[in-house]
Amino acid sequence: MPIKHRRQAPTQSDVARLAGVSQATVSAVVNGRAEGHRIPADTERRVREAVRELGYVANPAARSLKSKRNRLIGVHTFESVFPISSRDFYHEFLIGVEEQAVAEGHDLVLFTSTEDPDGKRQLYRDGINRLNVADGSVLLGVTHKPSDLARLAAEGYPFVHVGRRDVPGAEIAWVGADYRSGTEALVASLAGLGHRRVAYLGTSHRMEAQIDREDGYLAGCASMGIPPMPVFMKVQDLTPEWFDVTLAGGVTAFLAGAEAQADRIAELARARGLAVPSDVSVAVLVGTVGGPEVGRSWSALGIPRNDMGRAAVRLLVEMLTEPDIARDDQVLLPCTQPDHSTIAEAAR
């Protein structure tokens, strides 16, 4: 069922109607000319309250009188992503967003004015939704206030989140990676290589992606008839003693939820005279930049980042141009299985 969105951002007419004033009065207030027009303080206060309540933002781009759209797509990241390199996690998402925006004939605008001193960005500043400058927006990164997403959805502002998000009290549009199916298939692949004890190294950061990977791991273990062995430990807590006990328990493969965990397993293995993957197999469930040694990269689950960025823009444009048609506004794209760089048949 399509998620309901309003057709356009609030206008000065909407503000005027709520405040009980003329549109000319609203224009004077929002453009800083209240004093020059001798607008009473109480009237100015009512206009500003209406602006905050509706989330109105003065739009510098002239909208088409026919479509009420300016063909601007906003890009809001909850963390700073520039400058970026081709090895940066967000790079491929943003390339996909840009490529699809070009294909759709839309311009992009990056929102940065809501950044806090700690570098984190909010959707609202002083109660105002800055995203209203654009027809709709693509959101990326870790959401710090799910309530802001719920508010944005309640206001009817069109947006698509890159990454699956569960928002209490709201149904939002998102494009995510199918980590559950990808991880389940990876467990089955390792079992097919003879691994009957596969340890899962989880992280304490419990967002939807981490939960999906864990669910996929448990489902894979259940379907292959092998015992689940999830471990949630910080990298510094993966000690030589823990590693010895784990190997003694029959573990021959590790699924790491973070590259730093995989690096630590490789370090512990080298200290015991063991090699990856001939003695111990290791696969990483996120994108990686390194490997256990020079010239060897980690076997990593492939995240369709470029495709996710493109699909998010494609979905947003559909929401803007055909808001009432039936569509799936929550889309999962398949992950690709890792190569065998650091996974191999279980050691006999």
Could you describe the 3D structure shown?
- The protein is 35% helix and 16% strand.
- The protein has ten helices and 13 strands.
- The protein has helices at 12-19, 23-30, 41-54, 91-104, 146-154, 179-192, 208-224, 240-248, 259-271, 305-321, and strands at 72-77, 107-111, 124-125, 128-129, 136-140, 159-162, 173-178, 198-202, 229-232, 253-256, 281-284, 299-300, 330-334.
- By secondary structure, it is α/β, with parallel strands linked by helices.
- Among the domains are: 1-58, Orthogonal Bundle (434 Repressor (Amino-terminal Domain)), CATH 1.10.260; 179-300, Response regulator (Rossmann fold, 3-Layer(aba) Sandwich).
- The longest helix is centred in the middle third of the chain and has 17 residues, at 208-224.
- Helix 7 (208-224) links the parallel strand 8 (198-202) and strand 9 (229-232).
- It comes from Phytoactinopolyspora alkaliphila.
